[in-house]
Amino acid sequence: MIVSTDAMMQLLNDPVAAVDRLRQIEARTHSSGVATAQATVDSVLAAVKERGDAALKEYTERFDGVVL
């Protein structure tokens, strides 16, 4: 049961309804974008682990536009 509805927040008294709503939010926000971002992070970390400072310099130029 929804007690109050605001543009930013819903207050739920029913724990079952609250869990259902949290699952809906999770399904909406946990998308393939998370997997893509994680794959990118994993790739960057692997490159830095393997190539050290050379990889850091490349990523600094790529992402920050700074040539070291």
How is this structure best described in words?
Helix 2 packs across helix 3 (53-64). Strand 1 and strand 2 (10-12) form a beta hairpin. By secondary structure, the protein is mainly alpha-helical. It is built from three helices and two strands, in the order ββααα. The protein has helices spanning 15-29, 32-51, 53-64, and strands at residues 2-5, 10-12. The longest helix is centred in the middle third of the chain and has 20 residues, at 32-51. The protein has a domain at 32-64. The mean pLDDT is 85.
Most strands sheet = 2 strands, antiparallel
Shape: elongated
Query: Order of strands side by side in the largest beta sheet?
Result: 1-2
Query: Uncertain segments of ≥5 residues (pLDDT<50)?
Result: none
End-to-end Cα distance: 58 Å
Work out the oligomeric state of the chains in this entry: single chain
Strand content: 5-15%
Average pLDDT, all residues: 85
Helix content: 55-70%
The SS-based structural class is mainly alpha
Count helical runs.
Answer: 3
Radius of gyration: 21 Å
- What letter string, H or E per element, gives the SSE order? EEHHH
Strand tally is: 2
Helix and strand topology:
Elements: E1 2-5, E2 10-12, H1 15-29, H2 32-51, H3 53-64
Helix pairs in contact: 2-3
Quick structural gist:
This protein is mainly α and 68 residues long.
Top keywords for this entry?
mainly alpha, 10% strand, two-stranded antiparallel sheet, 68 residues, 3 helices
